[in-house]
């Protein structure tokens, strides 16, 4: 569905009070048009209706007239530069941004993320999310997987033991 047609449906959804549907449509548009600042602004406005300042700040982050409290809430929720970089969901170089302010913000976030990672990063290879304590989530994921494997093996051992006892 074309961008203008979807935005018209968003307007109709909002007029009818279907805020969750409008939000979902806008989320899809941001995925399809990550460099469209108008779509990001509209999504920020919808999150403002929800009363979610962190998400409003997330989608208004590239706007010069953004609300400082919402920006602070976004930065508090996404504490590290890699987390912020992933949350912004930008694709391609900063030069695709329509305004100088957005290009500067994107470049600043990318530079901060590069410093934090100790290597250059770009928007097309955003680092994997980190945990709040700064450790890579891959370690936690590996430990969780090992725990699940042990639980399955224990269940199988009990089940086999039960079958042996049944036929003994």
From TrEMBL:
Claim: Membrane is one of the keywords in the record: yes
InterPro entries in the record: DUF6584
Highest taxon, organism lineage: Bacteria
Keywords (A to Z) from UniProt: Membrane, Transmembrane, Transmembrane helix
Pfam families xrefs: DUF6584
Residue intervals passing through the bilayer: 143-167
Protein name: Tetratricopeptide repeat protein
Keyword Transmembrane: yes
